[in-house]
Every structure is written in C-alpha cells, then in structure tokens.
Amino acid sequence: MKAYWFDNLPGDQRLPHDSGREVDPTYLAKLGILHYHYPDVASVDALAAQRQYKNRDEITISPATMGDVYEEKVKMFFHEHLHEDEEIRYILDGGGFFDVRSEGDDWVRVRLEKGDLMIMPAGIYHRFTTDEQNYTKAMRLFKEDPKWTPLNRGEETDKNQYRKEYLKARGA
Ligand code: KMT
Ligand code: NI
Question: pTM of the full predicted structure?
Fold first, then answer.
C-alpha cells in the first residue's frame, strides 16, 4: 500500500498520477479508512469473523475476463460514488488504485497490491481504477448480502443519511 495526493493532471486514469506528496496512513485512519496486509486468506477469514463479514465474492477485472466490456467497466468504476455500507476489498493478485476524497475534497490515491486489504467506511466518496497492468483480482467482502450499489455523487448523495453520518463521525 502506498498513499499519495493525486496530481490532478490529464492522462489515462490508470497511470500513477503521483504528485510526489505522500499521505501518511494515519491520515487515512482519520478519513475512517482501515488498511491491513495479509499474506493469506486465513487472515482474511479471521478478520471477517471478527467484523462479521458474512458474505464474499471474487472479481477479476481484466480484458481477458471481461472482454469487450472491460474498458467500459473501468470507466464505470472510476465514477465518483459512495455506498451505504462499508466497501471491503482484499487484493488477491495484480493491483489497482482507490481514490478517496480528503477532508478538503481533494483526491488521495491509494495504491493496493497483492495482500492488501482496505476497508472504506459507508458514506465516503471514492472511485477505483486498474493500473497499467490492467489486472486486478479482488475479494469483495460484505456484512450481509452483497450490496455494492454505487450512488454517484450529486445533490442526492450530499443529502444521503450515510453521507451525513460519515461527515459527523469525522468531525466535519
Ligand atoms: C468498486 O467499488 O469500484 C469496486 O468494487 C471495484 C472493483 S474491486 C477492486
Ligand atoms: Ni465503491
């Protein structure tokens, strides 16, 4: 895992877009984000039991598995959105970037690689992209039934109850 401020420069979303300014993991914690590095799925099982993540599935995002819809999916994942539940991702292979909004509404880019597990709280604005390898194999964990409906950012999501609770919990 490596976190840094997104450079906001034009260019393919899959490029690193590293401004050169690192973000400390303690700042991610302040945004309500948890990060772990687990060598094996047994460690993930332990976390899942502890946090009561009852469901999971796996997704492989790559041209090989998605074919013609790959580019479309990559663009879709990159639309800024929130969820009304935690988003929990464990990288099984490959890598990718999650961009999360800072307190000042700037993008923090989090690079995840094999073995990284990240938990984003309900209500945080974020987006995802593969990197130049075009290959992310990830486990998605859920508390209850898979519920990952993305709510794209707009006037509605700014008024969303989970968004308000998120901001309140962050002291905003
Ligand atoms: C998301 O919410 O954008 C995703 O789940 C992306 C695929 S998991 C790395
Ligand atoms: Ni999401």
Answer: 0.96
